[in-house]
Amino acid sequence: MTTHSQSRTGASDPSTPAPAARPAPAARRSRPARGEGQWALGYREPLNANEQSKKDDNPLNVRARIENIYSRRGFASIDGGDLRGRFRWWGLYTQRKPGLDGGKTGALAPEELDDEFFMLRVRSDGALLGAEQLRVLGAISTDFGRDTADLTDRQNVQYHWIRIEDVPTIWQRLEAVGLQTQEACGDSPRGFLGSPVAGVAADEIIDGTSALEEIKRRYIGDPEFSNLPRKFKTALTGHPSQDVAPEINDVSFVGTVHPEHGPGFDLWVGGGLSTNPMLAQKLGVWIPLEDVPDVWEGVISVFRDYGYRRLRSRARLKFLLADWGVERFREVLEEKYLGRTLVDCPSPPVPTANGDHIGVHRQKDGLFYLGVTPTVGRISGTVLSRLGDLVEEYGAAGVRLTAYQKLVVLGVEEERVEGLVAALERIGLSTRPSNWRRSTMACTGIEFCKLAIVDTKDRAVALVSELERRIPDLDTPITVNVNGCPNACARTQVADIGLKGQLVLDDDGNQVEGFQVHLGGGLGLQPGLGKKLRAHKVTSAALDDYVTNVVTGYLDERHDGESFASWVAR
Ligand code: SF4
């Protein structure tokens, strides 16, 4: 590949320290042995301000203060520790003060970045959203969020411009239709990813819906699991396309078939991106559907008790896995938390089909599901409400969100499919998108995110539009993931073209918004981390040309059937 002038490129009680884990084998343990704040090794005293805040008061308790004090007295009354810490456990982040450019982010104090408005995240946990739920989600946006609503790659709905005064009313409306913001953010079990076609796909291995519902019922809001070392991401799918990005979650249950026992789930642990990307490690086991919640509890308990709490930059489960290795992890899980051994089973094969579910597909019951794309997850309250109306009007079962900032309308009768396809198109949701629109994602970016260095959503929308004009007949999906900073919320390292926002130099030597490029990463069909090519830095203004050049090079040079990632790896 050449591009213009550049080169190729259980059970334990957290208050009672458990017995120490056996030390990891020396060969795997390169860093000196010192406490990392693991509760299970007796480190109960907080080693940093975040740990202190969680110890001082369980973050779930902040809801009462929001309802009884802050929403009545206004933004100025909010305690700083609650505002920048505990609010997250209820899905609330302050949004970025307008007008701050990316270069200023690191130099300002937290209070200088905070706007008086909030981002609010609603978790869907892979559940089916009916017409009424969609209309409630839409009305909250139009009534309280200036008609903003983004679909995230974790199947959440994200609002902006929320005022603290309105939060209790929003909770009442959401909870009246079975939705919640609890633990949508924070050091907690965040929103789950579930297969958007669970229970309906003709080629499904196993329907995991009941397991996700049970995990949610038992553990979300349970104080036993509301003080984790950091966030904990869950994914579960019984679909052979592995449609929930299981490679990059802390814990994933992935459909598999045991030769004797039949369908069940393999267990993958320790995936995550950000600044130290790691793909999940596969245990190679078989877990029956009814055991999934107990095993989930075991895995999150290992994380809670043995996870590193000294440095937040090392507090995700992936760092424990990197030090322990998967065999040691399995041993601790089985011996200390499950009290039994798991059944061995080869891990499921790499998928052979794309798992974004875009287009019209027949269900196993003869009805159809329609996978549709907004552009880079950006919709609105108006569209959500209209979507609810269409679900009712066309007699569909409901809508599930996807792990790719898209959505799927399920349970449509055959004779109503074409009418619904046209109606969805009229509100900007296409079943037949270009490959550019289908495969581009963007994080929140500088418009609202305090950590952002560059604009992402608007930039990605413009990029898609320009690429559709320049290369309208692209015949294969090429994933483009646009991120506003190194945190990789839109998965920088697992895209064909992953873009990490940073300041770069333009031709005149000025610092301007731009991106570090990672090439050739992927999930599903060809999982792997992309190459970070130091020479591939591009200004935001030159992004259209950069992507055009790279993709044109691929299209000119590819062999029959060769993927973008394989071409990059040549
Ligand atoms: Fe914000 Fe960075 Fe995440 Fe984008 S990647 S949403 S800029 S933290």
Automatic annotation (TrEMBL):
<dbReference type="InterPro" id="IPR006067">
    <property type="entry name" value="NO2/SO3_Rdtase_4Fe4S_dom"/>
</dbReference>
<keyword id="KW-0004">4Fe-4S</keyword>
<protein>
    <recommendedName>
        <fullName>assimilatory sulfite reductase (ferredoxin)</fullName>
        <ecNumber>1.8.7.1</ecNumber>
    </recommendedName>
</protein>
<dbReference type="Pfam" id="PF03460">
    <property type="entry name" value="NIR_SIR_ferr"/>
</dbReference>
<feature type="domain" description="Nitrite/Sulfite reductase ferredoxin-like">
    <location>
        <begin position="114"/>
        <end position="177"/>
    </location>
</feature>
<dbReference type="GO" id="GO:0046872">
    <property type="term" value="F:metal ion binding"/>
</dbReference>
<dbReference type="InterPro" id="IPR005117">
    <property type="entry name" value="NiRdtase/SiRdtase_haem-b_fer"/>
</dbReference>
<keyword id="KW-0411">Iron-sulfur</keyword>
<keyword id="KW-0408">Iron</keyword>
<keyword id="KW-0560">Oxidoreductase</keyword>
<feature type="compositionally biased region" description="Polar residues">
    <location>
        <begin position="1"/>
        <end position="15"/>
    </location>
</feature>
<comment type="function">
    <text>Catalyzes the reduction of sulfite to sulfide, a step in the biosynthesis of sulfur-containing amino acids and cofactors.</text>
</comment>
<dbReference type="GO" id="GO:0051539">
    <property type="term" value="F:4 iron, 4 sulfur cluster binding"/>
</dbReference>
<feature type="domain" description="Nitrite/sulphite reductase 4Fe-4S">
    <location>
        <begin position="437"/>
        <end position="570"/>
    </location>
</feature>
<feature type="domain" description="Nitrite/sulphite reductase 4Fe-4S">
    <location>
        <begin position="185"/>
        <end position="339"/>
    </location>
</feature>
<dbReference type="GO" id="GO:0020037">
    <property type="term" value="F:heme binding"/>
</dbReference>
<keyword id="KW-0883">Thioether bond</keyword>
<dbReference type="InterPro" id="IPR045854">
    <property type="entry name" value="NO2/SO3_Rdtase_4Fe4S_sf"/>
</dbReference>
<dbReference type="InterPro" id="IPR036136">
    <property type="entry name" value="Nit/Sulf_reduc_fer-like_dom_sf"/>
</dbReference>
<keyword id="KW-0479">Metal-binding</keyword>
<feature type="region of interest" description="Disordered">
    <location>
        <begin position="1"/>
        <end position="59"/>
    </location>
</feature>
<feature type="domain" description="Nitrite/Sulfite reductase ferredoxin-like">
    <location>
        <begin position="361"/>
        <end position="425"/>
    </location>
</feature>
<dbReference type="GO" id="GO:0050311">
    <property type="term" value="F:sulfite reductase (ferredoxin) activity"/>
</dbReference>
<dbReference type="Pfam" id="PF01077">
    <property type="entry name" value="NIR_SIR"/>
</dbReference>
<comment type="similarity">
    <text>Belongs to the nitrite and sulfite reductase 4Fe-4S domain family.</text>
</comment>
<dbReference type="InterPro" id="IPR006066">
    <property type="entry name" value="NO2/SO3_Rdtase_FeS/sirohaem_BS"/>
</dbReference>
<keyword id="KW-0349">Heme</keyword>
<dbReference type="InterPro" id="IPR051329">
    <property type="entry name" value="NIR_SIR_4Fe-4S"/>
</dbReference>
